[in-house]
């Protein structure tokens, strides 16, 4: 069976013999009787994988250590499990009973293992307790840990009669992966107290778990114990400690430790790698000290290290958090073009890189840079999320007030927003309608207002006023009246500017009867409009067929 932290797998044992794995400890080969036919059929994998937990439970009933318990015993502490083993006389009945695997607890997890490992585990489970070696237990322990069932793996570890160094190492890592740093440290201390020598990966796992919880002082104590045991810390160990110092805000100490590792020339300590530098500069970026982070970045490049995408993303995030999105934009463009000032070829930006810079530019109102970032993002094969598209569409629509050339870009982003399945906000609809009206695309603006009304969105005054003005500029007074009727039907009173635009166009067309009707509708709703300014404003311009207006709800 594969070891927990390696990808290689040992060959399956033969149907009648099993030899202990050498990497788990020494154990003589133990002959065993042929497996029952009922179990053999369950151990044989099939293309359809027709095994299920119930079949496994029935199969395990036929062997010595597959006893089905109706109730699970109360949980044991690590100390309790150890003392039980000593009191039982080293393998007596009590010890053997507690070492039996509870099939109901393990069946579903075992069924989730890959076919080869599942067959191996079932092959081991059919043996009697007296025939199981420490290597057998370690195989099952590693398989459960690899399957992610750390709780069951720890329960099996507590039930083992005589765990060895490998058993302790797997259990310590399971506790670390569970996020239990105090329990992991206690088990590590017990492992050392029993005379076992933990490896660098075991020590490093505990240091990392403690640092992730901010227990830096305990992590330093483990580091000291690691040196005292004659086990030299690796750069992974130091990286965990540097990360812990940054996590608790001790940035200067983290930087000092980085400099200590960098100045080491006698080989007593490992040299810092790019991840060491990245962890420290990320810590400075998160508290708005980007200039100091950039100095650390330059040090890494001067040391001959190649910054990774994580390094650059940390700097991008720092610039944006500090309120300098244009600096982040410049760094992002260096990544896109591959022409960095510090390295020959910076890494290409990923989706996270764009996701950091684009929202920051939008929040700062830098719509030009945001649009270029969006275009670069599309060329790189990434899609902006709905929220970013919504904000970008708003920014481009606002630009249309001074630059109508942005209308095409605004329409493209708005169409992409709708196609993405993200429903635009009411404000985005209104700004898009305004931009279309200002650009002379009144039919599209009118259709957009109709969509808003059908979806129950509130019509903003500036949006429908701009649409009414655009319609009146094209002498389409009937459509303008329909827009105002739509506003009234939703319980709102059109503003003065909308009524003025409609009255002015009717006066220019000489349709005084219709103009008087619109004026009366405005006064009826308490809207004060200037009638005199429209007198004598008739001029020659194309008009609609002069039929009396049907004011409908406006009357």
UniProtKB/TrEMBL annotation:
Gene3D superfamilies: Tetratricopeptide repeat domain (1.25.40.10). It holds the Pfam family PPR. Residues 404-519 form the PROP1-like PPR domain. Residues 1-17 have a biased composition (Low complexity). Residues 1-33, 64-101 are annotated as: Disordered. The keyword Membrane does not apply. PPR repeats lie at residues 164-198, 199-233, 234-264, 273-307, 308-338, 350-384, 425-459, 460-494. InterPro entries: PPR_rpt, PROP1-like_PPR_dom, TPR-like_helical_dom_sf. Keywords: Repeat, Transit peptide. NCBIfam families: PPR. Belongs to the PPR family. P subfamily. This is PROP1-like PPR domain-containing protein. It comes from Eleusine coracana subsp. coracana. The gene is gb19790.
């Amino acid at each position: 069976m594969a070891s927990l932290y390696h990808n290689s797998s040992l060959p399956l044992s033969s149907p009648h013999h099993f030899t202990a794995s050498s990497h788990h400890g020494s154990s003589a080969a133990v002959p065993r009787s042929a497996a029952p036919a009922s179990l053999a059929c369950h151990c044989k994998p099939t293309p359809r994988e027709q095994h299920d937990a119930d079949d496994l439970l029935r199969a395990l009933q036929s062997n010595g250590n597959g006893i089905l318990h109706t109730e699970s015993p109360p949980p044991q502490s690590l100390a309790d499990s150890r003392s039980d083993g000593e009191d039982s006389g080293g393998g007596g009945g009590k010890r053997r009973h507690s070492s039996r695997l509870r099939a109901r607890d393990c069946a579903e997890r075992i069924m989730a293992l890959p076919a080869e490992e599942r067959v191996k585990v079932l092959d081991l489970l059919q043996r009697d307790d007296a025939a199981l070696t420490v290597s057998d237990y370690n195989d099952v322990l590693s398989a459960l840990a690899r399957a992610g069932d750390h709780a069951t793996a720890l329960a099996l570890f507590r039930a083992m009669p005589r765990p060895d160094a490998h058993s302790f190492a797997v259990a310590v890592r399971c506790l670390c992966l569970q996020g239990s740093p105090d329990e992991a440290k206690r088990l590590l201390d017990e492992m050392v107290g029993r005379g076992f020598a933990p490896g660098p990966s075991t020590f490093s796992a505990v240091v990392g778990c403690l640092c992730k919880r901010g227990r830096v002082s305990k992590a330093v104590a483990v580091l000291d114990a690691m040196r005292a045991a004659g086990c030299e810390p690796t750069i992974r160990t130091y990286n965990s400690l540097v990360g812990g110092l940054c996590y608790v805000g001790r940035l200067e100490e983290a930087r000092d430790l980085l400099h200590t590792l960098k100045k080491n020339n006698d080989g007593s300590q490992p040299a810092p790698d790019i991840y060491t530098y990245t962890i420290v500069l990320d810590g400075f970026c998160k508290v708005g000290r980007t200039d100091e982070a950039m100095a650390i970045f330059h040090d890494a490049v001067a040391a001959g290290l190649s910054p990774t995408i994580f390094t650059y993303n940390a700097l991008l995030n720092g610039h944006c958090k500090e309120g300098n999105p244009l600096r982040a934009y410049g760094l992002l463009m260096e990544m896109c073009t591959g022409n960095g000032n510090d390295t020959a070829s910076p890494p290409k930006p990923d989706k996270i890189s764009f996701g950091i810079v684009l929202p920051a530019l939008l929040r700062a109102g830098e719509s030009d840079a945001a649009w270029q970032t969006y275009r670069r993002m599309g060329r790189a094969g990434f899609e902006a999320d709905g929220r970013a598209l919504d904000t970008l569409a708003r920014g481009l629509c606002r630009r249309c007030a001074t630059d109508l050339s942005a209308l095409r870009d605004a329409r493209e982003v708005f169409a992409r927003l709708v196609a993405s399945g993200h429903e635009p906000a009411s404000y985005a609809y209104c700004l898009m309608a305004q931009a279309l009206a200002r650009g002379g695309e009144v039919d599209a603006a009118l259709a957009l207002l109709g969509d808003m009304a059908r979806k129950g969105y509130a019509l903003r005054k500036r949006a429908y006023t701009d649409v009414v003005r655009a319609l009146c500029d094209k002498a389409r007074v009937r459509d303008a009246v329909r827009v105002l009727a739509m506003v009234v039907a939703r319980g709102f009173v059109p503003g003065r500017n909308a009524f003025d635009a409609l009255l002015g166009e009717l006066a220019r067309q000489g349709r005084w009867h219709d103009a008087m009707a619109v004026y009366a509708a405005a006064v009826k709703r308490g809207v004060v409009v200037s009638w005199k300014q429209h007198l004598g404003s008739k001029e020659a311009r194309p008009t609609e067929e002069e039929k009396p207006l049907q004011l409908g709800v406006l009357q």
